[in-house]
Amino acid sequence: MSVQTQQIQTIAAGTDILHEGYCSKAVYILLQGRVQVSRLDDKNMRVILAELESGEVFGEMGLISKQPCSATVTTLTEVKVRCLDQTQFSYAMANNIKSVENILTTLFKRMRQMNARVIELEGKLAALSTPKISPSTAIHTEPWGSLSGLTPQAIHALGGLEELPIDSFPFRIGRWGQKEKSLWFGCKEENDLNIHDVPPYGLSRHHCRLEKKKKGVILIDTSRLGTWVDDVIVNGQVSLDVGIHTISFGASYGVFSFELIVHD
Q1: Within a domain: residue 136?
Q2: Nearest Cα residue to 56 out of 186, 196, 190, 166
Q3: How far apart, in whole angstroms, are the C-alpha atoms of residue 145 and residue 218?
Q4: Which of 35, 34, 17 is nearest to 26 (CA)?
Q5: What is the predicted pLDDT for the residue at 146?
Q6: Which DSSP letter does residue 87 get?
Q7: In this structure, are residues 229 and 246 in contact, taking their beta carbons and an 8 Å threshold?
Q8: Domain annotation covers residue 215
Q9: Global confidence as pTM
Q10: Range name among 21-30, 135-144, 198-207 with the lowest pLDDT average
Q11: What is the distance between the alpha carbons of residues 192 and 208, in angstroms, rounded to a whole number?
Q12: Which of 57-61, 125-129, 200-204 comes out lowest in average pLDDT?
């Protein structure tokens, strides 16, 4: 039996593969079936964060961190997964890098999120130590805007970032899809923010995008169900002035709710 065959496991429905608060020493590639990602909130109530489908990866932080899992992953159906520990991952990297493409994609995404987190913290420290500059002489060096999660699902979608900077346009938001996930080496994902929706799906693969205007941004909705902007459903486009706005996605209003800050 080959090493790759030995790594493939079939797991029954209703099984917790990863447990919130416990360390995982392996990474899983979902080959078949669906799993649910959840965590306990402050009131000890379980909140569903996402559902993952074939092609997705979970437990990848076990490869680069010894920290406990931030969520529980439970099988919704019988699933087939490919499981690799650190040694098996290193072997695959040396002998068949194509076989770990999905893992590398997820790790690169985590690295981008960590870099964004570092930049976010550096910006806050600089703001505390830098004297105020008059608007007439200031040079624009900060992002044009940012997104912050207002719900557990939205916070999860941002990968733990307090703020996701918006520093280039168009800025695309949509539901995660296998096509985007396969573009891993030297390529930019088609969506700038991929969200793992939960059935019944309320997000389209290419749900909406933000475009820059002279003052503020324009949100252009290209979805079937629309986008909630400042508590009003939008089908088409809406102009957003400098300031704070709320945008929401999902089959139920408020499942994925974000605060959008538009800078001058």
Answers
A1: no
A2: 196
A3: 12
A4: 17
A5: 93
A6: H
A7: yes
A8: yes
A9: 0.73
A10: 135-144
A11: 11
A12: 125-129
Amino acid at 252: S
CA angle 64/66/69 to nearest 5° reads 100
Structure tokens belonging to residue 62: 């076990």
- How many residues would you count in the chain? 264
Does one domain contain both 89 and 195?
no
> In which domain, by residue range, is 31 found?
7-104
Amino acid at 143: P
Residue 138: the pLDDT is 43
Give the percent of the chain with pLDDT over 90: 43
pLDDT band of 6, cuts 50, 70, 90: low
User: Residue 52 has which token pair?
Assistant: 């993952």
Q: Which two tokens stand for residue 24?
A: 């995982």
- pLDDT tens track for 62-119: 776 777 888 999 999 999 999 988 888 888 777 877 777 777 777 666 666 666 556 6
Residue 5 pLDDT: 46
- Beta-carbon contacts of 233 under 8 Å, excluding residues fewer than 6 positions away, are 226, 227
Q: Tell me, what CATH number does 64's domain have? A: 2.60.120.10
C-alpha of 232 from chain center: 25
Other C-beta atoms lying within 10 Å of the C-beta of residue 185: 9
- In sequence order, which residues have a C-beta less than 8 Å from that of residue 167 and are 6 or more positions away? 143, 144
> Where would I find the beta strands (DSSP E) of 159-242?
164-166, 171-175, 193-195, 208-212, 217-221, 227-229, 232-234, 237-240
The C-alpha atoms of residue 108 and residue 58 are separated, in whole angstroms, by 14
**pLDDT for residue 161:** 78
- Residue 197 has, within 13 A of its CA and on its CB side, a CA count of 22
**Is residue 140 within 8 Å of 133, Cβ to Cβ?**
no
- Closest of 84, 85, 72, 82 to residue 14, by C-alpha: 72
How many domains does the chain divide into? 2
